[in-house]
Structure formats: structure tokens, C-alpha cells
Design brief:
Low-confidence stretches: none
Shape: globular
Mean pLDDT: 92
Largest sheet: 8 strands, parallel, barrel
Helix content: 40-55%
Structural class: alpha/beta
Strand order of the largest sheet: 1-2-3-4-5-6-7-8
């Protein structure tokens, strides 16, 4: 089964020398697993643009992971975004993750730039006019917090796929049945592009809970019970976290899922351990 699995990873651009060292240590540890690609996030309003560019270019030049650059609609007009996309192509980077993006903190709800792309579906359409990109978009098993309804959210996903996206990567989740119900609804809406589950190994339970409240991802009661009392026991917490993520993936594999996207948080251990529990083994010769 492990030979049939495909994984991809998400990194974020570092903000300090120490964080940069952690990122490249993470790349070194995970590259031998042979990911399909590694996406690099793009801060709200393009706040990490230069750092994202640096990481993506280094990944491309390094050759161990195929980079996918995040691109958002926030805070830029169409000409600026199109210029960034053309720059990626000129640098040999043809994989993109096209997102609406979140507004900068304390600025209220998302507002499209007056001369910009209105949303991710509009952005995908624009990117298709620029070049032959491989485009991933986001999907939300529990609906995006800004969506008026689940029906509207799935319609928005269909627009992104219809406009030319190659696949959808989901927000992380911890309830397999929730994902399966969402997959059925997506299929019923006529969406036939791959739906890749996003997996978040839990490095710190409390921080994950707080983040989940902001992004609309539910945390089931059994997960609170599983991590109870482990805040000051990182070794046990890591074992439980890897086992929990692997259990989630194994159940998804039983339901026919073969592709997984890991939100690594620039920490290699939990993602590597989860992949190991799925039967994946590093190819050290390819990583050399």
C-alpha cells in the first residue's frame, strides 16, 4: 500500500536565522520520502512575499523537492499578481497554490482589491491565461468561516475547479466521517478533481485548539481526552500525535484515499513518523 501513496508537504517561510535553520533541517529530513511537491505559504497581504520567493527558489535549485508557491488575492491588483506569476514561470516554477488569502490582522473582513482578483476562482481563471500552471486550491470540509452556507462553499469550490484548478487540498480535520461526507457532497456537485486531505500532526494541543477556533475546524471530544495531561510531557505527546495522525490516514486509506498533504509547521519529526507508520521509507540515494 505504501508504494501507492503520494504525499506533499507545506512549509512556511522563516522569519529569523534560527527559523531558517529549522526549515532546512525539515527539508533535509523529509525530502527522502519523495514528496510530489512542497508548498510554501504566503502571508496575509503578501507580507512574506520576498521570503516565500527565497524559499521557493532554493527548493527549486536544490532539486530535492518540487516547490509549489502560494499566491493570494489580498492587497494587490491584477497586474501585480500576474507579474508575480510570470516571475514564477520564468524561474521554472509551474506549481502554484491559488488562494483568496486572509486579510491582514485587525483589518476586518476580506475586501477584494478594487483592481484585483475577486476571489480564488477568479485568480485561477487569471492564472490559466498566463501559463500552463499546475494549480492547487483550498477546500473546506466544514465550510470556510466566511461562507454563508455549506452549499455556497461547495459552489465556490466547483467554480475554482471549473476555472482550471487541478486539485483541491482540504483544511485539516480530525473526523474521518466528516471528510467522507464532504467528499460525497463534492462528488454530487459534479466536482471530479482530486480531493486531497490535509493532515495536521498535533505538535502542541493547546495551540492547535486555539488556531482551530479561528479557522473553523472542529476538535472532537475524544481528542481532548487523548491529549489530556500531556502539556508538560513532550515525548509522550509526540508518540500520541504521530499515532493519531497515522490512525486518521489509515482510515482514509481504507476509504480509497492515496494522496495526503501534511501541514508540517516546519517541524519534521511528526510528519516523518506519521509517514513511517503508513509504511513509507526514505530513499536515501535520491536525497543525496
Amino acid at each position: 500500500m505504501a508504494e501507492k501513496l503520494s504525499v506533499s508537504f507545506e512549509f512556511f517561510p522563516p522569519s529569523s536565522e534560527a527559523a531558517e535553520a529549522r526549515l532546512w533541517n525539515t527539508v533535509e529530513k523529509l525530502a527522502p520520502l519523495g514528496p510530489a511537491f512542497a508548498s510554501v505559504t504566503y502571508g496575509a497581504g503578501g507580507t512574506t512575499r520576498e521570503r516565500t520567493l527565497k524559499v521557493v527558489q532554493k527548493l527549486k535549485n536544490d532539486g530535492r523537492m518540487e516547490p509549489a508557491a502560494h499566491l493570494t488575492c489580498v492587497g494587490a491588483d491584477k497586474a501585480e499578481i500576474d507579474g508575480i506569476a510570470r516571475g514564477w514561470l520564468e524561474a521554472g516554477i509551474s506549481r502554484l497554490v491559488a488562494l483568496r488569502g486572509d486579510p491582514p490582522q485587525d483589518t476586518g473582513r476580506y475586501q477584494p482589491h478594487p483592481n484585483g482578483y475577486q476571489n480564488a476562482a477568479d485568480l485561477v481563471s487569471g492564472l490559466r491565461k498566463i501559463g500552463d500552471f499546475d494549480i492547487s486550491v483550498a477546500a473546506y470540509p466544514e465550510a470556510h468561516p466566511d461562507s454563508p452556507s455549506e452549499v455556497a462553499d461547495i459552489a465556490n469550490l466547483k467554480a475554482k475547479i471549473d476555472n482550471g484548478a487541478n486539485r483541491a487540498i482540504t483544511q485539516y480535520f480530525f473526523d474521518v466521517d466528516l471528510f467522507l461526507r464532504f467528499r460525497d457532497k463534492v462528488a454530487a456537485a459534479g466536482i471530479d478533481a482530486p480531493l486531497v486531505p490535509g493532515i495536521m500532526p498535533i505538535g502542541h494541543f493547546g495551540r492547535m485548539v486555539n488556531f482551530s477556533k479561528r479557522c473553523g475546524a472542529s476538535v472532537p471530544d475524544w481528542l481532548f481526552e487523548r491529549f489530556e495531561g500531556l502539556d508538560d510531557d513532550p515525548e509522550t505527546r509526540e508518540l500520541v500525535a504521530a499515532s493519531t495522525a497515522a490512525d486518521l490516514c489509515h482510515r482514509l486509506i481504507e476509504e480509497g484515499v492515496t494522496d495526503f498533504h501534511f501541514y508540517t509547521l516546519n517541524v519534521p519529526s511528526l510528519t516523518f513518523a506519521t509517514c513511517h507508520l503508513l509504511g513509507m521509507r526514505p530513499n536515501l540515494s535520491e536525497a543525496a
